[in-house]
Amino acid sequence: MSVIQALREKYATTVVIVVCISLVAFLLMDAFVGPKSFFKKDTEVVTVNDIGYPYKQYMRDVKQAENNYRRQNPDGNLNDQIRNRLKNQVYQRFVQKQILQSQYDKLGIAFSTDELRSLTVTADADPRIKQIPGFQNPQTGEFDPNRVISFINNLRNAPGNNRQALQQRMQWEQMEDMLKSSSLLTKYTSLINNGIYIPSWLTKEKVNENNKFSNISFVSAPYTSINDSSVNVTDKDLQKYLNEHKKQFHIDANRTIEYVAFNVIPSAEDSATILERLEKLKVGLDTTSNSTIDGFITRNSETPFIDRYLPESMIQSSVKNQLLSLPQGSVYGPYYDGNSVVYAKKLGSKTVADTAQIQQVLVSNRMFPDSIAQFKVDSLKAAVKSGADFSQVINTYTKGRAQNNGNIVITANSTNVPDQFIQFVNNHNVGDLGVVKSQYGYHLIKVRNKSGMEKGYKIAYLTAAMDASQATDNGFYSKANKFRGLNGTKKAFETAAKENGYKIQEGANLTSSTYQVNDLSSSREIVHWAFNAEKNDVSKVFILPNSYVVAVLKDITPEGTAPLESVKPQIQAVVRRKKKAEVISKKYEGKNLKQIASAMGDSVSTANKISFATSFIPNSGFEPKVVGASFNKNWKGKLSKPVFGNNGVYYLTINSIYDGGQADSTSSQNIKNQMNTLLQREVASQLRDALIDQSEVDDNRLSFPGL
Description:
Helix content is 47%, strand content 21%. The chain is built from 23 helices and 21 strands. Strands 6, 7, 8, 9, 10 and 11 form a six-stranded antiparallel sheet that branches. Strands 16-3-20-19 form a four-stranded antiparallel sheet. α10 packs across α20 (564-587).
């Protein structure tokens, strides 16, 4: 007791402080540690329902997506636009996967190893597995599960340094992941679709509606009969409508900027220098032989040499007719093609195939010395020449790992195969076998089929881009830098731009997913800046391809209901129409149908056999409200209340409502099936947005430069 008393007397204040610190630390712990901590935003690109996507993993997945793109488009240009698209695809894929996974977990939907086995190595395998030629019997063309098992075993037993096996293992894992995702989604959507039920009473009501018809007499007063100027629409009216329809006008957080772009344009001196240089090179183009033209173009042209004959239909040029009519060996130019100046030399012409099917096997000279690789491919060729089945030779040599068993369909302008393949096809007949060498090694090729024969042309293009010189480029940068340095406020920015004749452009509604501002390529950095700046801030000079940009942050719009000013024209039309409807209905109050028609200088119209099956009124257009009013029995033989339609205010009298006859059971079932299908489609179209609305998605991409 004495110890406790001493603590109370001597250390009471200290104890209270320690307890308070402990409580505060406990309360703040969740803010700094765990899935909702402040620091998570520094490491995770997005969190979905507290599950984060670490930046490093995201970048690895982006890298993989880029590698897949390169593999599918070996000669394609992986530019910023494509990179941004791939980044967004990777992001969206993660978000969708996590949202769906949360649904799967709640509903107990899973995917087992037995299912994976059933979808890959049994007779009931997924069609996408069955259609892979490498998994088909070469003699019968039928799917053979044993070939899949052999393929998987070969992957497992392949050495760790076998690049081809590593690539195939990665592709197979992607296939397995795709099968899993597809199976889970199929189960989920099936569960939802099976939960959709159309009761018999609803079917009966729909059948009765479709078999009911109405004949009416009506008059329509179009909204255009009232001048816009005679209807006073105030901001108060517009705001009231906006407040009543907030969900319809919900928007994501966005930014609006103003900017001046200093586009880098070559000077007259730049253009003259480029033309002079190309004119000198043209002498070499005239005299260079076809056998050495490849090297000449590679050294001197910005357009690579395409060593193949392209069919006339595939040649894209602004002077195509002039090029094709040139004598062989002649040069045409200079002419402009986009931003380039061009000289073109016609090297020759011959009949070529538009499309061809080949079968090939590669012997890599990266895995073996060149002489050994050549010996191996010659041995394979000798075996086929001696009667061995080419498909079996490929299967044996590659141990079943050759994609599509070496079968490839190529066109005259295919970019995913070496030029040597095209040349071999153009120079050989169907059934011919031969060896070609590419950057990958030696290929044993057989021409299986050729189709679409037409005249092809081989043309060499000597090109130079009409780009600004470094001195000219520096001049534009200095101009942009000076403009930014002298105008650090929004007012100064706008005043100086006007005085200097610079065009101020607007980039409106930029969201976290915006990767390009108007026509400014590679402008994601501007979006990053806009979301991290204060209103009226002036940016640094952004360095973009062929331009320098200075921007000012004009407006910040948080997520929520759109500001009135941004949707004013849209709302104005609706509110004005509503006010016109009130004016029209008041104008004809107390009048009968003939009097209304007379006052309008019109006559009473009739519409017969109106049905719920259609929402159109003859000579009036899409008017579902009028169709609905045409079946209101209270207005049979009487004047209806004014009906505010899409195109005007309608007054009508129902002359008769009658049944078109009893529908048979087949018709009733068809209608029920149609209703079920329509409802399934509607659910499917809204499901993704509904799931996102129910989920907590925290997009942190703008916290990471380059994303």
